[in-house]
Amino acid sequence: MVKKFEELLSKIEISIVCLGLGLLIITVFAAAILRFFGIDMSISTDLAQLTFAWVSFIGADLAMRQNKHMGVDMLVNRFPVKLRNAIFLFNSLLMLAFLLFAVYYGVNLCIINAARKYNTLYISYSFATASCPVGCALMCLTVVKNIVTYVKNFVKNDYSSIEKGEIIA
């Protein structure tokens, strides 16, 4: 059940990021071409900002889910696998605390920005600021899954997931 939910969520995230990047590229490219001919496309700035916010946060969770975030692990990889698991667990707990902080204050930011409108899109600026709590909440799910795995590693005394590089903080 959890695996199917995770696969569905991953497919949805990939679709959103791909569509968002496509829209972002088309919008910015069209604005640059039209600006060359002296035609103002002021909507492109607001649309690009809105799209970039969502693509960034959803893409961050997608990267975290697939262990594609950049990291420097030269030192940590020299430690015994049990210590690495403890370091990854501690790191994940810190990430979870930060993400929960970002979700809480991101929701507050959405409420504050509810009355603020985009100049050209005529929608609330909360649509852009909502990308933060939504993206961070998705990352919370990913981090909690990793925390459960690290705790299971300690309980079972099986660190094969870390040795294979399947899961990294």
Automatic annotation (TrEMBL):
It is a multi-pass membrane protein. Its main location: membrane. Residues 24-151 form the Tripartite ATP-independent periplasmic transporters DctQ component domain. Belongs to the TRAP transporter small permease family. It comes from Candidatus Galacturonatibacter soehngenii. The keyword Transmembrane helix applies. It comes from the Bacteria. The chain crosses the membrane at residues 12-35, 47-64, 85-107, 122-144. One of its GO terms (molecular function) is transmembrane transporter activity. It holds the Pfam family DctQ. It is found in: Cell inner membrane. InterPro entries: DctQ (IPR055348), TRAP_DctQ (IPR007387). GO terms for cellular component: plasma membrane. GO terms for biological process: C4-dicarboxylate transport. Keywords: Cell inner membrane, Cell membrane, Membrane, Transmembrane, Transmembrane helix, Transport. This is TRAP transporter small permease.
